[in-house]
């Protein structure tokens, strides 16, 4: 027994109270956070006994446990993440790996992930990569693993699924975003049980192209995102498949870098071509640049040229010509990723499935029937 009946704390098992006014207890600490040693001194037990109480071990008497817990409350001692992990097996922290960017999409989904994690009682530890090479992504995953995260959301383009599966081995992981064909929602190729939460990127291309063809345009020109991005390749595939379905000619693809500047540069080329009457841009930012280029060349939107973007960023509704676009809800996507990851962490024996979300066409003023006005 680590303490005797002569202990300065008298415990009443009927009233569940403890008289802390007796001698032998130091006053509350000031100027620093209390430590486990402080708790041990306060409760007149050994640090090892405090450790056993904090870790939830059963080889401690109820009276001793009560003394330690009262000392913890009195001093305001906070169990560290390591101590909590020893008790629960979880640090209550989720890792989120992102690509360094100030884009609206990243801010929206990270904010949604953080809010969703807090609702589940978790914190988010975020790390960002400047390179999406498999080696850099795997190193960042290992860094988050060393921080003791319970699971990880990988919100960067994934080019080597097998390498990712190896890096995240034994760690619940969710791949966020990308094309439905890139990271199959039912898991990675090696059967490790990691899953994807994504928007159907091909469907984005289909919705945009179907809308423009339905307005009477002979074909649709496409300003795509970088060819190394699954989002871009998925949208381009949907665009091409829709043109083929309707027997329409497929114009050459112009490739941008997601920015308004690249949209303006490529839009300047398209604006010179009278045969161009409909454009699908793979992002709203590129669409904004295209709108500016068309205006600069005296092409009216939507009377001469209809333009559709993708994402539905907040500015889309307030552009000089309100932009018709295909919405992907980054907030819903971020929330779904965290919900799935928490379920994987807390119910590892349960069968889990990825999430494939549908995009939505949002009609505004930048599209109209061909030759309208």
Automatic annotation (TrEMBL):
<dbReference type="InterPro" id="IPR046335">
    <property type="entry name" value="LacI/GalR-like_sensor"/>
</dbReference>
<dbReference type="InterPro" id="IPR000843">
    <property type="entry name" value="HTH_LacI"/>
</dbReference>
<protein>
    <submittedName>
        <fullName>Transcriptional regulator</fullName>
    </submittedName>
</protein>
<keyword id="KW-0805">Transcription regulation</keyword>
<dbReference type="InterPro" id="IPR010982">
    <property type="entry name" value="Lambda_DNA-bd_dom_sf"/>
</dbReference>
<feature type="domain" description="HTH lacI-type">
    <location>
        <begin position="34"/>
        <end position="88"/>
    </location>
</feature>
<keyword id="KW-0804">Transcription</keyword>
<keyword id="KW-0238">DNA-binding</keyword>
<dbReference type="Pfam" id="PF13377">
    <property type="entry name" value="Peripla_BP_3"/>
</dbReference>
<dbReference type="GO" id="GO:0000976">
    <property type="term" value="F:transcription cis-regulatory region binding"/>
</dbReference>
<dbReference type="InterPro" id="IPR028082">
    <property type="entry name" value="Peripla_BP_I"/>
</dbReference>
<dbReference type="GO" id="GO:0003700">
    <property type="term" value="F:DNA-binding transcription factor activity"/>
</dbReference>
<dbReference type="Pfam" id="PF00356">
    <property type="entry name" value="LacI"/>
</dbReference>
